[in-house]
Amino acid sequence: MAPRFFLFSLKVYAYLRMRVGDLADGCLALEKLLELDLLDKIGAQVLLDVLARAEEAEDD
Known about the structure:
Blueprint: H1 2-19, H2 23-36, H3 44-59
């Protein structure tokens, strides 16, 4: 139970960093989450996809 709670906490941290505009730190947290959760049961890839789309929109 504790490892899953930690992984969800890391996802929430990444989400909040992204919401306040710190995309680099949010991305690092999501990459660490994917490193720890190889099967992506927590859903970090979804947030990474959102981040990638946001960065593409900034470039346009």
